[in-house]
Amino acid sequence: MAHLSFFEKPGCAGNARQRALLEAAGHTLERRNLLAEPWTREALLAFLAPLPPAQWFNRSAPRIKSGELDPDALDAEAALALLLAEPLLIRRPLLRREDGATLVGFDTAAVDAFVGLPDAPAGRLEACVSASGHCATPEP
To answer: Which NCBIfam families match (predicted)?
Structure first.
C-alpha cells in the first residue's frame, strides 16, 4: 500500500469520496489544502507538465462552467498564470506518492495503475457535487 499526499479542496464531497476509495484500498493519506498551498510555478508543473494545458483545469470551477474561461483556448503560460493566481481552477485531486511520482485527477483506471484501487467504480470521479448538483461547500 502507498502513502500519498492528497491535495484537495476541504469540504469537497467528490474529494471525500476519492479519499474513502483510497483508504478502503489500504492507502494512507497526507491531506493537503489545494487552495492554501503556497504553489510555485515549479511545484505546480511537477504535477501538470505531462498533460496538455486544457487538462490542468477543474471543469467544475464556476468560471469555467459559466463560460467565462475557456481552458481549451489557453497556452501553457497563460494557463499556469491563471492556476497560480486562482487555485480553485486546478484540477483535483493532485496525488503524489512517496517516490515523487504524481497524478492529476481521479480517473479510477489511472489511480489503479498509479497505486492500486481494486473494486473501484469505473470512470472519472472528479466532480465536487452534492445532491443538488452544486459544490457541497461554498466557493471561496
So the answer is: nitro_assoc
What nine digits make up the cell of 71?
481552458
Q: How far, in Å, are 29, 37, 41 from residue 33 at the CA level? A: 12, 6, 17
Name the active-site residue from 6, 8, 12, 126: 12
Amino acid at 26: G
Cβ-contact 15, 32 below 8 angstroms: no
Q: Any catalytic annotation for residue 128?
A: no
Q: What is the mean pLDDT of each run of 10 residues along the chain (140 residues)?
A: 96 94 96 97 96 96 96 97 97 97 94 88 59 40
Question: What structural domains does the chain harbor?
Answer: 3-115 (3.40.30.10)
